[in-house]
Design brief:
This protein has 150 residues and is an alpha/beta fold. Helix content is 37%, strand content 18%.
């Protein structure tokens, strides 16, 4: 776990963002990439790393009260693991308003917009499939209010 504080760009307040993979995904390059993207945007990043168990993610969200949780996966099991994780997160009253997004390779058959809609219905605030433009993610982060779950 790593906490990095970077000055906010353009004089905006700094957002705290937790970055994590799903419990079944051991990849790290995607998490490092997202951490760098978020730091460039002036965010403080807590990177939980790969294979983070659901309860660790919940505990760190309760402890850090992030402005955003970013769940990234590249192993093709994001839909299944993400559906479970968002239920666990939303069962905690303190985390119901916390913005949560998921992105990457969410299924083994490639992008599936029906699965994305199901993830939003389950409680994710945003779904960024593997073919999504990173600028869409950057715009989403920039539009977030600071201190939503504080």
């Amino acid at each position: 776990m790593e906490l990095v504080r970077c000055p906010a760009e353009l004089g905006t307040a700094s957002r705290t963002v937790i970055v994590s993979s799903v419990s079944s995904d051991s990849h790290t390059w995607n998490l490092v990439y997202l951490q760098l993207v978020l730091e460039e945007a002036g965010c403080r990043v807590v990177n939980l790393g790969p294979c983070a168990p659901d309860q660790l993610i919940v505990a760190e969200c309760l402890r850090n009260r992030p402005d955003l949780l970013v769940v990234s996966t590249v192993n093709g099991h994001g839909f299944q693991d993400g559906s479970r994780l968002i239920r666990v997160l939303r069962n905690h009253s303190e985390l119901r308003q916390m913005p949560v997004v998921i992105g990457g390779k969410l299924g083994i058959s490639g992008p599936d917009h029906r699965s994305s809609a199901s993830l939003v219905d389950a409680g994710f605030d945003g779904v960024f499939e593997e073919d999504a433009d990173i600028q869409l993610f950057r715009s989403f982060v920039a539009a977030l209010p600071v201190g939503v779950t504080s």
